[in-house]
Each structure stands twice: as structure tokens, then as C-alpha cells.
Amino acid sequence: MTTTTLKLNLGPQHPSTHGVLRLLLELKGEKILSCEPDIGYLHRGMEKMAEKMTYLQYLPTVDRIDYLAGFFYSELLCRIVEKAMEVELPDKVRAIRVMLLELNRIASHLLWVGAFLMDLGAVSPFFYVFREREMILRFFEKLTGQRMMYNYFVFGGVRRDIDFLDGVEEIISILPKKIDDYEKIITENPIFLRRTVGKGILEPEIAFNYAITGVNLRASGVDYDYRNSDDLYRGFDFRTVVLEEKDSWARYKARISEMRECVNIVGQALDYLKRAGVLEQRLINPLNLKLPAGDYYSEIEAPRGLACCYVRSDGGEKPYRLKWRTGSYYSVNLLRKLLVGEYLNDAVAIAGSLDIILPEVDK
Amino acid sequence: MLNEWKNLWLGLWTVFKHLFKKPVTLEYPEKKRVLNGNFRGKPQVSGCIGCGICKKVCPSGAISFAKDENGKVYSYKFDLKKCIFCGNCSFYCPKGAIRMGDEYELACADASELELIYEGGCNDK
After folding, report:
1. pLDDT value at position A342?
2. Is the CB of residue A77 less than 8 Å away from at least one CB of chain B?
3. Which range marks the domain in which residue A49 is found?
4. Is A1 among the domain residues?
5. Residue B14 at interface with chain A, using a CB cutoff of 8 Å
6. Do A342 and A350 form a contact (C-beta atoms < 8 A)?
7. Do A151 and B100 touch (CB under 8 A)?
8. Which backbone phi and psi does A93 adopt, to 5 degrees?
């Protein structure tokens, strides 16, 4: 008897591949023998673009690297310039930035919960998470002027002071109850459990080999969170969520728990901002900004793993070379390993659980 | 088994309760949201002195100036087809001449409508 294998294209326009990801699967029956991710459909040349632009011109465009967590990439570029110009951030600026970053992380995780559940066939949570995310986006819009492309962080500080905090108070009072609601619908649901428990097990050794960071790594039992050693988060008290289960369910649970922890951090920043006086910051004049020649590096714990920015400056107004490291890029590569031996109907569920976002992969 | 049914019904009950809540969406375009004054929409220009800082900070090259034969700036052109509404021009304008307005429905049949030309505004240099 001869056995044949089937090659199947999943994507790039498949609704559940979260953007334009193409997975070339080799199947034997329903079982996946190999997986080859094909990326690059959303490549915008973010790194090459930087070489033609001044640092100030480049700053508004970096929000587009990850449109669900734009603040993180603005923060990375600002950090590069602040490090090069040796500027220390005042405490109020730090508190504002931490609050916005954590709200952004919650918004990103919320959308992930909705999209992941949609992959598994549950439609209602998708609408509920959008309702809660809307509260956060309304606040961002009021503060920065836009809902997703913020361009709010500037070199040495922020664009304007926050003089209204009632929106954030509402968010942190409502959100924990809503997360309880999601957990009632999802966490112990037998259908959800059968589709996620024991599926896509990510052993820590494999995660290390594939350079996986962020929630995906922490859901595999590795206690690594860059926020613990990040200077921006100095003085904030929070817990690192680490789970031992290593499967898709653990990655879901870790994100849910991390959202609760983010609410806690936002609460601490809010308490500080209520007491803090007027914003005093020393902005770097960006108009003729030239970074001293040398290499600069910054990193931050983004919602999809460790994000880094590396800049080589030749002393000019524009970067000589700029490189981004984004978490999703490594998660996509992991699919080569994680999908092998699984069934086709679990492929989307496992890929969804890794929280891949394609603009971040293709840059 | 009993536990599974219990959890299933708990989830369904949570979803069911939403049937009796008010809708959170708005029937666009019949109803529109009230924007706060901080929104970054179509830019408005008045009182430009033609210093060119906005052109320098613009990431997408949406701003251009036209000069007469004496080299004097006489018109200011804002190309909304290229604009990414980042607000850099407005933030760094030394005279506060550019204001990001509330207008966001910019679809039009004629592309030339998206080129905002402010003439004469830059002559006082």
C-alpha cells in the first residue's frame, strides 16, 4: 500500500490566521507532518525606512510596527534617544508612561482573548472584549488624539500633561469584574478545555532554542519578565505570572492573569499621578537632533514578548542602521516545531494561542 | 460530567444576561460620536509665517511650500493623501498656526479636494 501526503496552504487570506500569514502544511490524513511558515506579505520596510528619516520623523511611524501595542515601540525609540543624550526621566513622566503601557497591554491582551476564542468558534466573547477595549481606546483618544497611532511619547517626556484621570478610574474599577465574566464563560468551559488542554505543549528547552519570550515563555514555567529589571518600572510592585502547564490553556490563563496584574500596576500609577503636581519635563530639542556616533540598544517587555531596538549612529541626523526585535517573529518560527504531530483542526487553535500579529513579524 | 454541565451553563447564563442590556454600539452614520477637542483629524492652517519647521518634521512629505521669483514663500500646500495625521507639524509649529481639526470623513470623488492650499498666508515673513 502506498501512502501519499497532501500539501495544504493555510492562508495568507484565511480569516483565522490573524493577518496575512501563510502556513504550508504537509498532511498525512489529518495529521501534520511538517509546517513551513511563509511571512513577508505585510513587509513595509520599517528598518530601511529609518535610514532615510530623522529620529523625529521616524517616531510617528513606529506605532505601526504593532498596531495593537503602539506605545511600546514609541517607548523603545524614545529610550534610545534618551539614553544617547543622557536624559533622566522625571517620576511623573515614568508614571504616565507605565500607566499607558500597561493599559495598552490590557487592550492588546483583550483583543487576543477575543480573536483566540473566535478561532475556537466562540463568537460572543469577541464582542465583549471589544466593549472593554473601547473604554481604553476612548481614553487614549482623549489623551493623544488618536485611537491606535498615538505618537504621544516624545524624546525626554510626553506630549502633554494628563489632567483627567476619571476614565482610567472607571477602567480599573470595571475591568476586574469583566475579566471575571470572561473566566465564567471561557476558563472551565468543557469545549474550550478539550480544544486547549494538552495541545501545543511548549517545553522550556524548545522555547529557549526558538528564543521565545513574554507570556508564551512564562506559561511554560520559566520565570522571566523583563519588567522586573526595567528601570521604568522602578518602585512598582507587581507579581510575575508563571504557569507550569505549558499548553494552549496555560497561555490563555497566563494572559488573563497578567491582565489582572496590569490593572494592579495601572492602579499604582494612578495613585501616584493623583498626588503628583504639574508635569515638569526637560524635552530634548528634536529639530537638529544628532545622536553621538556609537551603538545604542533598548528593550522592553511588550505584550507579545521581549521587544528590542538597536541603533547604530554615525553621528548624523539619521540612524546609520536600525533593527527591531519583535516577539511574534519568533512565535511564528515556533510553529515549525509546535504543529508537527498535531491534527489539522488544532493548528489554528495552537497558532492562535501564541498571539502572533503579522505587522510585527513582517515589519 | 456534572461539573462540565455546570460550567457550560454558567457560561451560557453569563452570555444570556447580556440580552437584557442596552446596546453599546452607535448606529453610524446616522448617529455620530462627539469628539473631544483633542482629536487629530484634518489639519486647519491660519497664521503661517512660512518658517518650514512643519515640512522638516513631517514623516511623509505631505507639506510643501511654493515660492515666487523673489524667493518669498507665497503658498502652503498640505497633501492629505500623504498625511498620516501624526500631529508633528501641529506640535512643533512655533506660532501654533496648524491645528488638527475634528474632521475625519475625508473620502471624496476628486483627489484634488485632498490638497489643501493656503495662499497668501505665508507672505508676512
Report:
1. 87
2. no
3. 6-362
4. no
5. yes
6. yes
7. no
8. -65, -40
- Return d(Cα B27, Cα B33) in angstroms, integer: 10
A128 touches chain B (CB under 8 A): yes
Is A184 within the bounds of a domain? yes
CB of B4 less than 8 A from some CB of A: yes
**pLDDT class of A266 with cuts at 50, 70, 90:** very high
Question: Is A53 touching B (CB cutoff 8 A)?
Answer: yes
Give the pLDDT confidence score for residue B125 in this predicted structure.
Answer: 44
Give the integer Cα–Cα distance in Å for A182 and A192.
12
Q: List beta partners, residue B33.
A: none
> Which residue(s) pair with A28 in the sheet?
A31
Q: Of all residues in chain A, what percent carry a pLDDT higher than 90?
A: 31
If DSSP codes are grouped into helix, strand and coil, which group holds residue A248?
helix
Which residues on chain B are in Cβ contact (under 8 Å) with A144? Answer: 38
Which residue out of A73, A136, A139, A141 would a mutagenesis test of the B interface target, given it has the greatest number of B Cβ atoms within 10 Å?
A: A141
CATH of domain B2-119: 3.30.70.3270
pLDDT in tens, A96-145: 999 999 999 999 999 999 989 888 888 888 888 998 999 999 899 888 88
Q: How far is CA A210 from CA A306, A335, A355, in A?
A: 13, 10, 15
Instruction: With respect to residue A336, please indicate whether it lies within any of the assigned structural domains.
Output: yes
State mean pLDDT over A355-361: 87
Would you say the pTM of this structure is higher than 0.95?
no
Whether A185 sits inside 8 A of B11 (CB atoms) is yes
